[in-house]
Amino acid sequence: MTARAIHTRNSLGVSTMLLYEDLARARMLEAEQAASKLRLVRRLTAAKRWNRVSKWAAKRAARASSL
Q1: Which residue has the higher pLDDT, 47 or 12?
Q2: In terms of domain of life, where is this protein from (predicted)?
């Protein structure tokens, strides 16, 4: 059975989405969700890195001012 054979019409005469279109939409949604999670992980990683750099710089400044 081909994708065209799956195409049907409901009682209102509105075409239903073809199976492959539905699968493509689901894949795009999954890809967008994965990209969103990856962006969040990268933002958290960057925040942790800048926090470490900030602490290191503060310690270095404190040592330099005490001399």
Answers
A1: 47
A2: Bacteria
**Residue 9 — φ and ψ, nearest 5°?**
-125, 140
Rg (CA), the chain: 27
Q: Which residues pair with 15 in a beta bridge?
A: 9
As a whole number of angstroms, the distance between CA 67 and CA 65 comes to 6
pTM: 0.59
**Residue 14 in this model has a pLDDT that exceeds 60:** no
Q: Is pLDDT above 80 for 11? A: no
Note whether 3 and 18 are within 8 A (CB). Answer: yes
